């Protein structure tokens, strides 16, 4: 007589496993690893995220959003990108540089700011807040130590003009640490500014396997577990036209390493 395998419904081991799965239906969907870390970290990051723009009472809308910033240092400083700042302010008509604390996402607290330091070569700026209480500051990681393949996250205001002042978090990995000036395929595509940068001022940035959008400029790039800031998001690779950033994002973004922000903060008095 040949041996027969027991029917699954009479297999006691299988029945115990099935009962355990039915008793804990959410067990298979619990976040693990970096995802679990991020769930705990995001609430600590969001109070430090601010919108950067200009404010003019007689204008509609009075606030014009330009990018994201985040609080650093003593709680009276905000880090962002240099390209987020306006080229000039219409001071004759009372236009002012401001940051907005998002609040409930519909309304927010407006505070004036001034430029404390800039490094346009590395696309960084530090703002000094006007009168008001200190805000919760993010901790900056030590220089170096970031590795390719490392999990990262960033929080900011993607398409803030449309989606409003609600901080949004994206995650991904550091896919490469690469020079900021990348030689073009054809020599005629090189411009004088790029040639000078390649020759005299090459520095490395983090290429990210993560999707960012207009408005994310100035967002803090941070470690999902500790929340320590690793860099400042500053640009997105565009596959076609600027409009395609929204309709067909490349999923490739870049961030300036935090060591350059450390250096710029050292210039703030």
Automatic annotation (TrEMBL):
One of its GO terms (molecular function) is peptidase activity. Residues 1-36 form the signal peptide. Keywords: Hydrolase, Protease, Signal. InterPro entries: Peptidase_S1_PA, Peptidase_S1_PA_chymotrypsin, TAT_signal. GO terms for biological process: proteolysis. It holds the Pfam family Trypsin_2. PANTHER family: PROTEASE DO-LIKE 5, CHLOROPLASTIC, SERINE ENDOPROTEASE DEGS. This is Serine protease.
